[in-house]
Every structure is written in C-alpha cells, then in structure tokens.
Amino acid sequence: MKVTVVANVEQQKEILLKKTNADVLFVFINSLSDINAQDDSDIFLLLTEEIVDKEFEAFKGKPVFINLVIETLEQKKMPSNFSRINGWPGFLQRQVWEVASNDTTLASKEFKDLGWGVIFVKDEPGLIAARVISMIINEAFFALKENVSTMEEIDLAMKLGTNYPYGPFEWLDKIGLQKIYDLLSDLSAMDKRYSVCFLLQKKYLELSSQ
C-alpha cells in the first residue's frame, strides 16, 4: 500500500511514530505540485497546504485525508473521496484519528489497511479533540486573568492532575495562537460557551499588530 503524504518535517516525524502495517510505504513530498508524479498511490494525506477546487481532480477519486480542522467538508464543497483529519501539532502521532468523512465505508477500509484506529465524528468545526483543547486553553486564560496561578503552574497542574501530555499554554505554543483564536471565534458564533477570553484576544491582537 502506497501512501503519499504532503507534510513538513515535524508532521513526517509524527506519522513515522505511529504503529503502521508492515506493507505500507510512505512517500513524503513537499508540495501539491508533485502530486501528479504519484499516480500509483493508494491514498493521500494532505497535511500542510490549502487545496482549491481545481485541484480536486488530481487525485482521480482516490481517498484523500486533509488537515482541515476549522472549516468543514460541506463549507469547502469537497467531493466524496475527501475526509477531514486533525493534523495540528501533537495530534498526528495518536494511534486513533478522528475523521469526518463523506464516505465512511471507504475511509474505514483505508484505516484498516494502514493499521490505524479511527473514530468517525460529525463534520463540524474543530472535530472533537481540537475543540476540547481550545476550550481548555481558553479556560486557562480566564484562570490567568483572575490571578489563580502562573502559566507554568497551570501547565504543571494540568499535566499532573489529568495526565495530559502538555499543559494548556504548552498546547498553545505547539499549535499556534492564530489557530486557537480562529477556532474559538468560529465556535463562539454558534455557542457562547466558546467566547474568547479577553486576555487571549488581547494576546492575539498584539501578535497581529506586529
């Protein structure tokens, strides 16, 4: 089974950390412009680049799993062979992936061939894990604003108390403030529980003005 992966170096490392069936061959490329040279691939993982409508046909109907955390398949009007995954830093190496798919039967087969676990979720912004992590980060900013503790102590408390691999501010550094802010802003338009903490918004605006 040949899998073509468009990924940066860190994403490649996470993919290679996963337990995968022995007959799977990963081919890593840097750009969508190199896709046509991989016509014999069985599936494609698009982890780094935005894709536009005119490029959908380049995959010839083969299964495509795209790193699309905030926008949905419906919003992007993606064809039935496309599925959404969470390719944010720290999530790719998980043995079970969340997938929002237009064709769960096809996606299930491909994950079985890969030897990876899969859980299918609704085609909603943030999928599940990214939505939860963004909310935890937002709550951590509320705690910081109210002088509950320092960033370092909040991170340590979350790791020791919940056995999370990273604390909320470590997650923020790893994922990126822009992504967290954009997801929370999108979610808060539908549910006020996700309203962005003033301190997080302030940090975002300061970053944007640089």
Across the major sheet, the strand order is: 2-1-3-4-5-6-7
Largest sheet features? 7 strands, mixed
Averaged pLDDT, please? 92
Shape: globular
Q: Report how far apart the termini are.
A: 46 Å
User: Strand pairing plus helix content: what structural class?
Assistant: alpha/beta
| Strand-residue proportion | 15-25%
What is the share of helical residues? 40-55%
Order of helix and strand elements from N to C terminus? EHEEEHEEHEHHHHH
From the alpha carbons, calculate the radius of gyration and give it in angstroms: 18 Å
Number of strands: 7
Oligomer: single chain
The total count of helices amounts to: 8
Structure, described:
- The chain is an alpha/beta fold and 210 residues long.
- It is built from 8 helices and 7 strands, in the order βαβββαββαβααααα.
- A 7-stranded mixed β-sheet has the order 2-1-3-4-5-6-7, with helices on one face.
- Helix 4 (129-145) crosses helix 6 and helix 4 crosses helix 7 (177-188).
- It has helices at 9-17, 73-76, 104-114, 129-145, 151-162, 168-175, 177-188, 198-208, and strands at 2-6, 25-29, 43-46, 64-67, 82-85, 96-101, 117-120.
- Strand 4 (64-67), helix 2 (73-76) and strand 5 (82-85) form a beta-alpha-beta unit.
- The longest helix has 17 residues, at 129-145.
